[in-house]
Amino acid sequence: MPRAKRELKIAISLVYYVLRSILRCLLNLAGRSSAQRLTILYYHGVLSGERTAFARQMETLHRAARVIPTSYRGKLPPGKKCVAITFDDAFTSVAENALPELVKHSFPATIFVPVAWLGRPPGWAMEEDALARPSAAGPKVSELVMSSDDLKALPASLVSLGSHSMTHPPISALDPERARTEIADSRQQLAELSGREILEFSFPYGDYNASALATCRAAGYQVAYSIKPQEVDPAGSEFLRGRTKVDLSDSPIEFYLKFNGAYEWSSYASLLMNAFRWAFRRPVSKIEVQAR
């Protein structure tokens, strides 16, 4: 991301955070306190050279937040900001470099697995490329998807598993039968090879449509995840949950704003942009909207 655009996002997020904090204080004074909401973070890989940065972020969460599992349901406890941690793509670097830091702090996390790529290098376009060019070639990175043995070795007391489809396609571009295979069959196969119940689905590239959501429900998932940076209410009945992307190059202020839900404004900005473009009848794909 260009530096100027990144700095603009930080500035807007900071203003959003301050204004929201003032509003909440005023509501508290008026005896109308609002319930705390959950911020769900998502990562991809954590390469060996990034472990120090990841460890630093986990130390920050240890001091300033309460990390809870994505499966948490009910009213959030008062006090520290509640955060959940997820990883898309099930890269081996997560087990090698992120897991030890999670264990150190007893932080739960959920890993979303592209089932057809187990034990292989990722053959799909990485998120940044796919958002700009859905037909982009595979990633030029030294990552490897975990094998079934790797998944079985993950500590069940801390790490939950969810499906990230079979082959990691943009789901809304598929015909109904192919979408059902990617969503339902991946759940069944992941459950069989891991010996765990699979109740959560993460849309590749955050790409979905109404049909995909219906297919997820029919397949038996309890929740599905997008990549819109929206906070969620675990006591509510939301089936689709937003998540906030974290980069290991994030500055301390960026990370603080992200885990406090201050990037939520960008999802509203995307909706407004989409509505504006729709008004002028220019078709906009889900992937394009997510890129904003």
UniProtKB/TrEMBL annotation:
Protein purpose: Is involved in generating a small heat-stable compound (Nod), an acylated oligomer of N-acetylglucosamine, that stimulates mitosis in various plant protoplasts.
Protein name: Chitooligosaccharide deacetylase
KW Signal (keyword) present: yes
Alphabetical list of PANTHER family matching this protein: POLY-BETA-1,6-N-ACETYL-D-GLUCOSAMINE N-DEACETYLASE, PTHR34216
Source organism: Bradyrhizobium manausense
Entry similarity comment: Belongs to the polysaccharide deacetylase family.
GO terms for MF: hydrolase activity, acting on carbon-nitrogen (but not peptide) bonds
Record's keyword terms, sorted: Signal
Domain NodB homology: residue ranges: 81-292
Classification of source organism: Bacteria, Pseudomonadati, Pseudomonadota, Alphaproteobacteria, Hyphomicrobiales
Gene Ontology cellular-component annotations: extracellular region
